[in-house]
Structures are given as structure tokens and as C-alpha cells.
Amino acid sequence: MKIACLQFNPQLGNIAHNLKRAETIISRADPVDIDLLILPEMAFSGYNFKSAEEIEFHLEPTAAGPSTVWARSIARRLGCYVALGYPEYCAHSPSSPQGSMSRYNSAVLVSPQGNVLVNYRKHFLYTTDETWAEEGKEGFFSGEMPDGLGKLAMGICMDLNPRRFETPFENYEFAHHVLDSKADLVLMPMAWLTSQPQSSLVDQAQVPDADTLAYWIQRLQPVLDKGPQGRSEETIFVTCNRIGVERGASFAGTSVVVGVSKGNIKVYGCLGRGTEDLLVCEVPGPGKNSRRR
Prior knowledge:
Layout: E1 2-7, H1 15-29, E2 36-38, H2 52-55, E3 60-61, H3 66-78, E4 81-91, E5 101-110, E6 116-121, H4 127-130, E7 141-145, E8 150-154, H5 173-180, E9 185-189, H6 200-203, H7 210-218, H8 221-226, E10 235-240, E11 245-246, E12 249-250, E13 256-261, E14 264-270, E15 277-282, H9 288-292
Parallel strand pairs: 1-2, 2-4, 3-4, 8-9, 9-10
Antiparallel strand pairs: 1-15, 4-5, 5-6, 7-8, 10-13, 11-12, 13-14
């Protein structure tokens, strides 16, 4: 199976620019026979909005706005699954109070045919999300992937952390979800911050943020302890993060594809903390060639 992570630097509120930039990176990389393409959290809107009023113009109807339209188009063009994050609004029924709607930090997954398979709403909110979004009430996502790709677990960024940084660290809520759902593949669009100086995003742009990567792996400790519970010999964990600085917030990049088995981590590929690029990794699993046989 061939997985691609599109790591880039979206500009806050500039959807047209961000769509064009993503297209440029894909065209430059010219990927062949990829099975899955993943983009960051809130990939085309930017992330650091300060209020519901400020983000209102950039909210997209459930799995039907510019982000999903782009995902469906690129999925058909490349013949692959596409996952990305976007800011969602969901209008309530006519019987609800006038103008009533819900807002979510969401991610969509579409099939190679352009069909929407998943619309996931972030379950654990970061403080920035709480200024405008509601918590997804359905919990973390799990489900069976078509084409024999196995079971999928999905979260968004903060979902990997303790809830509101208040629950005990050793609860490992998302990692236990991965185990309980017997996931073969884990997808996490991210807008993950770095604790490193802003200067390092330029001076060490090609170098992954080692602290961030180590923390992500640490948050998978129960999976590392027990090993995969699904059909696969290892659980493939994929994060696609963004880069750049937005309103003083510095993002860690370091998009990565890792395999987690009992007592072992295998890094299939990782981008630097300041690199705009398409990371393409081949991992165990039924890819396009095996499905064509």
C-alpha cells in the first residue's frame, strides 16, 4: 500500500491560494499509483481563528464544501482515497430555533470514486477549537475500509492527547481506541504546534522535530505494548501535519508514516519541520497492484 502525506503551509482564510498550493505540490511530485492521500487538519482554511464570528465565512457544509469538492476531484484523478480536515457547519432541522447550527473541526475521507465514506468530528478539542467548535459527540472513528485495506481508526490532532490535558496521561484514550477497534490503519490530520524556536523552522527546515515525533509515539504506548489486535502484523499510524507560523503559533511539520508492532516502531518516512512536500511511503498491505490481480 502506498501512502502520501501532503505537508504544506496554508495561509489563514485564503482558500483559493491554499487549494492552488496543494495542487502545485502534487503536480511537482507527480505521484504514481498511490492508495491514500492525507492532508492536514483544516487544510484549506488555515487553523488559528479566534472566534465563531471570525471563522463563520470559512465554514463548510457537511462534506459538501470546497475542501470535500477538492478531495473528491483529486481522488478520482489519482484513483486513491483522500483524507483531509476542514471546518464544518451543520444546519439543524427546521423545527430547531431559527438560525441554529453546529460547528465542528472535522475530517472527511473519500473513496477513489469520489464518494464520501467518513465525516469525522474532532472529539477532544484544543483551546483554539473551543473558541468556535463543538466537541464531536460520536467519539473517535473506527470502521472497515473497502478494497481489503482493513480496519481504520481516525482522529484529529488533539485527539491524541489527554482530554483537555486534564485526564491522566496514562489513560491513553486514543491509543486504547486503536486497540479496541483492531485498527490496521490510523489516520490523523494535524495542526500540531512545536515547542522549538521559530528560527528552527527555517534553519532546520529539513530536520524532523524529534520531540514531537517522540511524543506522538509515546501516546501510542498501549499499542506498542500489546501489538496490533487486527489482521495486520503492524498498525500503520499516519499523521499529516502542517508547517509555518500563523498568528505567532509555530507548527511542527514532521508528517510521518510509522508501523507499530509489539515492542517495535518502524519509520517508513518522515518530513522535516519546515518542508513543503509530498511524502510517499510504501507500507505492508494490499495496494493497487495487488487489488488489480
